[in-house]
Write a structure and sequence with these properties.
The structure is a single chain. The chain is of the alpha+beta class. It contains 5 helices and 12 strands. The protein has helices at 2-12, 24-38, 105-109, 113-118, 137-143; strands at residues 41-50, 53-62, 66-73, 76-83, 86-90, 97-101, 124-127, 130-136, 149-157, 160-168, 173-180, 196-198. A 12-stranded mixed beta sheet has the order 7-8-9-10-11-1-2-3-4-5-6-12. A hairpin with a 2-residue loop joins β1 (41-50) and β2 (53-62).
């Protein structure tokens, strides 16, 4: 009788199925992306190619929510500055800034957006600081509007992302961004009041977020 009572207890103590281990490449990409999210500042430069259109950009990001960016498109240079939810833009160097307030400005123009997606990536391969990855569904669409799948590469040095590329087949978009001076002192300040005029609400950015 004692044996009959003990056997069911032993059966209930069988080991549960082991969780699927996270691949080393996935861990590395996630860790590097999380490190970039936490970085106090960084410089970035890159380009977006969509069809026959190329957008070149460079700038500085500084926490919390401060961005100073220069964009070149179709032979013109635009400047964009973000201080929290207050945005400033001008359409030629040396001209006065237009001030625009937009409640969602930080989320739409945050150059750390790609890092949030990579910090949760499930498909990555590689080693030695060189990795490939894929994103699909909402994750892909949040980087490239209208895309359902994209693939890319990440280069990691000292636990930080220094080079990022990603490509979408439909719509056809290619992105390449480099990051430098991660965590160094970088100050982004709004322009002097005398150089600012009132503007109109900013449209949502048409290009993918860096």
């Amino acid at each position: 009788m004692i044996l009959g009572a003990v056997l069911p207890l032993l059966a209930g103590c069988e080991d549960a199925p082991a969780a699927t281990p996270v691949p080393a490449a996935v861990k590395s990409v996630r860790a590097a992306a999380s490190s970039m999210q936490a970085a106090t500042s960084f410089h970035f430069a890159g380009n977006f190619v969509a069809g026959t259109q190329t957008v070149t950009l460079s700038g500085v990001y500084s926490q919390p929510g401060r961005l100073d960016e220069t964009v070149q498109l179709a032979g013109r240079t635009f400047e964009f500055l973000l201080d929290g939810n207050t945005a400033y833009e001008r359409f030629a160097p040396g001209t006065r800034w237009e001030k625009v307030t937009r409640s969602s400005a930080g989320a739409l123009t945050d150059p750390r957006h790609a890092f949030a997606l990579l910090a949760a990536v499930d498909d990555a391969n590689g080693s030695g600081g060189k990795f490939t990855f894929t994103l699909s569904g909402d994750a892909a669409a949040s980087l490239v509007a209208g895309s359902s799948a994209l693939s890319g590469t990440v280069t990691v040095v000292s636990g930080k992302i220094v080079d990022l590329t990603y490509t979408s087949a439909s719509p056809a978009v290619n992105v390449h961004i480099t990051y430098s001076a991660v965590g160094t002192t970088a100050t982004v300040t709004p322009p002097p009041a005398k150089d600012v005029i009132s503007g109109t609400p900013l449209p949502s950015p048409a290009s993918p977020s860096p």
